[in-house]
């Protein structure tokens, strides 16, 4: 009877310890996820701030979309192609 009680208590302690360990791991994972989401949220807030600045929006429209104001002429510089050496025949 005594051995059964000891085994029952040992199993209960082991089960509680396992639950405690798993809960700790889950807390760590949630903290990492929270940190990542806070960083992402900060980046999105900064993007919102930038997109509410007309000068920034204009710069992006010009640089990335090639847009021009009425009356302006867009100039696109095409890099000069570098000649490739001709392959030598191998026999």
Biggest sheet record: none
User: What's the total helix number?
Assistant: 2
Strand percentage: under 5%
The Cα radius of gyration reads 33 Å
Helix content: 55-70%
Residue-averaged pLDDT? 90
Subunit organisation of the chains: single chain
Q: List low-confidence stretches.
A: none
Globally, the shape reads: elongated
**Strand tally:** 0
Structural class: mainly alpha
Task: Measure the end-to-end span.
Answer: 92 Å
In N-to-C order, the SSE pattern is HH
Description:
It is built from two helices and no strands. With 91 residues, it is an all-alpha fold. The chain has a domain at 6-65. The longest helix is centred in the first third of the chain and has 50 residues, at 2-51. The N and C termini lie far apart (92 Å).
Summary keywords:
91 residues, elongated, single chain, mainly alpha
SSE layout and pairings?
Blueprint lengths: L1 H50 L2 H12 L26
Short description:
This protein has 91 residues and is mainly alpha-helical.
């Amino acid at each position: 009877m005594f051995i059964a009680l000891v085994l029952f208590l040992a199993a209960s302690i082991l089960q509680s310890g396992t639950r405690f360990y798993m809960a700790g791991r889950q807390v760590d994972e949630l903290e990492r996820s929270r940190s990542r989401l806070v960083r992402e949220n900060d980046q999105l807030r900064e993007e919102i701030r930038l997109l509410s600045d007309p000068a920034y929006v204009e710069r992006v429209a010009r640089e990335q979309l090639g847009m021009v104001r009425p009356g302006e002429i867009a100039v696109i510089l095409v890099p000069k192609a570098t000649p490739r050496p001709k392959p030598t025949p191998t026999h």
